[in-house]
Specification:
Mean pLDDT: 89
Structural class: mainly beta
Strand order of the largest sheet: 1-2-3
Strand content: 35-45%
Number of strands: 3
Largest sheet: 3 strands, antiparallel
Shape: globular
């Protein structure tokens, strides 16, 4: 998966009827720091289902 480095368990994020406790870390780019975003924003998978192929942070 491009644009993310790894995944970690974290707080619960909700969007509509969906929820997730997996978060992915984005790489630092230029002057922007590395950051975490909820996997709920990524396409595919079910509620609280980790995306495959990502190592744990």
């Amino acid at each position: 998966m491009l644009g993310v480095e790894c995944r970690a368990k974290g707080g619960r994020a909700t969007y509509g009827d969906h929820w997730h406790t997996w978060w992915v870390r984005t790489p630092a780019v230029g002057t922007a720091r590395s950051a975490y975003m909820s996997e709920i924003l990524l396409a595919g998978g079910g509620d609280d289902e980790p995306d495959s192929g990502l190592p744990t942070c």
